Amino acid sequence: MGKGKSEDPKYGKRKEKAKMQLKRNIGYFDGVSFIIGSIVGAGIFVSPTGVLKHSLLNVGVALTIWTVSGLVSLMGSLCYAELGTALPFSGGEYSHIKRGLGSLPAFVFIWTSIFTKPASNAARALLFAEYATQPFYGICPAPEVLKKCLALAVLWSLGILNGHSVKMAAWVQTVFTLLKMMALSVIAIGGIVLIGWRKDSLARFEDAFSSEIPNASQIAEAFFQGLYAYGGWWSLNYMAEEMKNPSRNIPLTVITAVPAVIVFYLLVNISYLTVLTPKEIVSSVAVAVTWADRVIPSVAWIIPVSVAVSIFGALNSSVFTLGRLSYAGSQSGHLPILISMLNVHSCTPAPAMIFSTTIASIFIIPSDLIMLTNYFGFSAWLMIGLTCASLIVLRYREPHLHRPYKVFLPVPFVMVAMSFFLVVAPIAWSPNLQYFYAFLFMMGSLVVYLPFIHFKLHFAFLDKITCHLQLLLEVSPADESAENKCE
Questions:
Q1: What is the model's pLDDT at position 330?
Q2: How many helices (H) and strands (E) does the chain have?
Q3: Could you report the per-residue pLDDT of 107-153, keeping only the tens digit for each?
Q4: What is the pLDDT of residues 95-117, one digit of tens each?
Q5: How far apart are CA 487 and CA 471, in angstroms?
Q6: What distance in Å separates the CA atoms of residue 482 and residue 476, rounded to the nearest whole number?
Q7: Do 225 and 50 touch, CB atoms closer than 8 A?
Q8: DSSP annotation of 207
Q9: Exposure pattern of 209-238 as b/e (b: 16+ CB <10 Å)?
C-alpha cells in the first residue's frame, strides 16, 4: 500500500489546514476597468438629452450639471474607498451597512437588491440584443423572441464566464472597457478637432449661459439625469475581498477611474454640442449615432457597434458584482448557505452566479416587469445614504479600526444629505402609486427576516437539498480565516 495523501509530503498537513476562499486576482488596472466599465454604459452614447432638456437648452447649465454630478460621484466613491480599505469584504454596501447599522437594514438592502439588480441586468441584456440585432433588420423592428433569446444567451454566457474564472472575467472587462473608451475618444477628439475648424461652434460656448436659466425643480431633474449616467461608481467595493493590496489599490483605482470618466463625459458632451445644436440633441433618439452620421458618415456603423460593446462591458461588471452580493449575503446567513459556497476547482462563487443569473433570466421573459424597477430608483440612493451613514457611525463607534485611507469627514455628511434629497424629491414631485408598491416590497422583507433570520426557523429537508446540490455543483463552504487553497 502506498502513502495516502495525508502522509504524502506533497500534500502533508498543508492540505489539511488549507481552506477554500476567494483569490486576490484583481489588480489596479482590473479595478480601473471594472469601475469605468460599470459607469460607462449606453447612456453617454444614446441619450445625454435629459440633462440638456431639463436645463432648458442652456449649454452652460448642462455642462455644469455634468461636472457637479461627476464630483458628487467622486465624493461617494471616496467614502466607499474608506469603507473598502477598512473592511475589504465581498458584498459592497451590504457588508458595510451590516457592520455599521446592523443586520435588519442590511437584510432590507439585499432583499431589495435581489429584485432590482437582476432586473437591471435583464434590461441591459435586452438593450444589448436590441442594438446587436437591429442592423440585420434595417428599418423593420427585430422580432421580440429573437431579442429575448439573445439576451438570455448573453446573460448566461457572462454568468458562466464569471462563475468559471475571475481572471477571465477581468480580462473580458479590460478588453471591453478599452474598446468603449476608444469609441468615446473618437467622439471626444473629433469634437476638439472640429472646434478648430468651425468658428460658429465656439459661439455656443462663448454665450453658454445666455439662454433661459432653469428653476430649482428643473435643475434637480437635470441633476437626476446626470447622476444616473455616472451610476456604477460603487462597484469596486463588491470585489474588495479579491483585490490585490486593497489598502493601496482601492483608493488609487477610485482616484484614477472616476475623474477619467468625468473628463471623458465633458469632452463627449462638448463634441456633441460642436456638431449638433441643442435642439438637435434634444430631438435625437441616439445622439452619438446622429453625431457619427454628420462627422464620419462612411463608418457611422462604428457607433451602434460601440453602444453594444459598451452595454456588454457594463453587463459583465454588473453580473460580477451581483454574484458577490449574493455570496456575501449567504455568508452572513441572509440567503441559503449553498450560495456562499465556492467551486472546488476554480474557487469562484459559482452557486451565487447561478442564483443571480437565474433571477435576471426570469425578468427577461415578461419584460414589462422591468418597467416596475424604474420606481425603485430611489432605493439605490437610500442604500448609498445608509452606507455613508455607516461610515459616520463606524468613525465614532470604532475609532481604532484600522483605516488605511480616511475621507474628509464632512464628505459623508454631504452624501447622506444628498441621498436623502434624491430619495424624497422624486416621490414628492411626482407621487405615484408604484412608489408605494416599491416601499411595501421593501417592508415585505420583515415577513422573511423575523421568522428565518431573527428566530432562525429552519427546515431539515433543506439540508438534504443543499447536500445534493453541493455534490452536483462540486462546491464547498468558504473559510475566511484560513490560507488560500486555490493559489
A1: 92
A2: 22, 2
A3: 999 999 988 889 889 988 988 998 888 778 877 888 889 999 999 99
A4: 999 999 999 999 999 999 988 88
A5: 23
A6: 14
A7: yes
A8: T
A9: eebeebeeebbbbbbbbbbbbbbbbbbbbb
pLDDT band for 369, please (50, 70, 90 cuts). low
Q: State how far Cα 93 lies from the chain centre.
A: 12
d(CA 385, CA 101): 12
Residues 6+ apart with CB under 8 A from 107: 334, 445, 448, 449, 453
Please check the confidence at residue 323 and state whether its pLDDT lies above 60.
yes
Residue 52 three-state SS: helix
Q: Are 435 and 378 in contact (CB under 8 A)?
A: yes
439-476 in b/e burial notation, b at 16+ Cβ within 10 A?
eebbeebeeebeeebeeeeeeeeeeeebeeebeebebe
Element (H, E) at 476: strand 475-477
Q: What residue has cell string 465624493?
A: 75
Cβ burial 29-58 (10 Å sphere, 16+ → b, else e): ebbbbbbbbbbbbbbbbbbbbbbbbbbbbb
Across 169-305, the runs of DSSP E, i.e. the strands, are none
Please give the Cα distance from 391 to 286 (Å, whole number): 39
Q: CA quadruple 236, 346, 10, 8: dihedral positive or negative? A: positive
User: Is 157 buried (19+), middle (13-18) or exposed (0-12) by CB count in 10 A?
Assistant: middle
Amino acid at the residue 205? F
How high is the pLDDT of residue 409?
93
CA dihedral 309, 323, 326, 38 (to 10 degrees): -40
What pLDDT was estimated at residue 228?
A: 85
Phi–psi pair at 145, nearest 5 degrees: -65, -40
User: What residue type is 54 in one-letter code?
Assistant: H
Beta carbons within 8 Å of 6's beta carbon, 6+ residues apart: 12, 15, 16
In a 3-state reduction of DSSP, which class is residue 409? Answer: coil
Give DSSP secondary structure letters for 245-274: SHHHHHHHHHHHHHHHHHHHHHHHHHHHHH
